[in-house]
Amino acid sequence: MTLGLAAASAMMVACNQNGGSTAASSNTEIAAGKPDIVYVNSDSLLANYEYFKDVRERLQTKAEQKEKDLRAQAESFQKEVERFQQNAPSMSQRQAESTQQRLMQKQQQLQALQQSSGNELMSEESEEMKKIYDRVEEYLKQLSGEEGYKMVLTYQRGNSAILYGDSTLDITESVVTALNKAYDSEKAEADTAKKEETADKKEEKKK
User: Fold this and answer.
1) Polar residues compositional bias: what residue ranges (predicted)?
2) How far is Cα 120 from Cα 57, in angstroms, rounded to an integer?
3) How far is the CA of 69 from the CAs of 63, 64, 65, 76, 113, in angstroms?
4) What is the pTM of this model?
5) Beta carbons within 8 Å of 187's beta carbon, 6+ residues apart
6) DSSP letter string over the chain?
7) C-beta of residue 40 within 8 angstroms of C-beta of residue 180
């Protein structure tokens, strides 16, 4: 279970506002010297957004650990089955049936655990992608208000309604820079709070 660029890009939807006719927008752009419509390359944004990269790494690590745990349990179960097969000839019919029933129940539990584990990861990935979308949308709304953008489109190579866009309308780099700056500040504040909490706990222990 990995957090891929394709899945993430699907959630990168533009922050749209009413913009009037195409002709009117063009005239406004010329008069103001600023474009009404700009676009963001979602592939590039996600590939360079530190928050997304941290989330992807965390989810991949969690998925790998879950897979490792499930594999260990499956291997342990397989050994139990092999022991039963070896010992079955010397067991009474009642012992054999009881052991077989227990193994069947354990197999069902393992299958249910695999299913619930996969669903849990998918749910967490969906929640994290919503957080990323909300962060980007919130910033684009703020940026649109400051710059006067009427529409911010999203562009993804090979899967986009935009066949061509002038590079001067591409604001991806500035958006990534601003998002990463905000995320760095959040991490710094979180680290400071964590250090203060640790220091407080040490002081409490001394008392």
Assistant:
1) 84-99
2) 17
3) 10, 9, 6, 11, 11
4) 0.71
5) none
6) ----HHHHHTT----B-----HHHHHHHHHHHSS-SEEEEEHHHHHHH-HHHHHHHHHHHHHHHHHHHHHHHHHHHHHHHHHHHHHHGGGS-HHHHHHHHHHHHHHHHHHHHHHHHHHHHHHHHHHHHHHHHHHHHHHHHHHHHHHHT-SEEEEE-TTS-S-S---GGGB-HHHHHHHHHHHHHHHHHHHHHHHHHHHHHHHHHHH-
7) no
Site of tokens 């749209």: 16
At how many degrees (to 10) do helices 172-206 and 50-87 cross?
Answer: 70
**What is the amino acid identity at position 193?**
A
Distance CA 205, CA 207 (A): 5
Longest Cα–Cα distance of the chain, Å, equals 93
Amino acid letter, residue 167:
S
CA count, 13 A, side-chain hemisphere, 69? 11
Radius of gyration of the chain (CA): 27
| Owning domain of residue 125 | 5-206
Instruction: Kindly list the averaged pLDDT for each block of 10 residues, start to end, along the chain of length 207.
Output: 52 42 38 79 94 95 95 95 93 92 95 94 94 94 93 85 84 95 94 82 71
Which CATH number belongs to the domain containing residue 59 in this structure? 3.30.910.20
Q: Tokens 């092999």 correspond to what residue?
A: 82
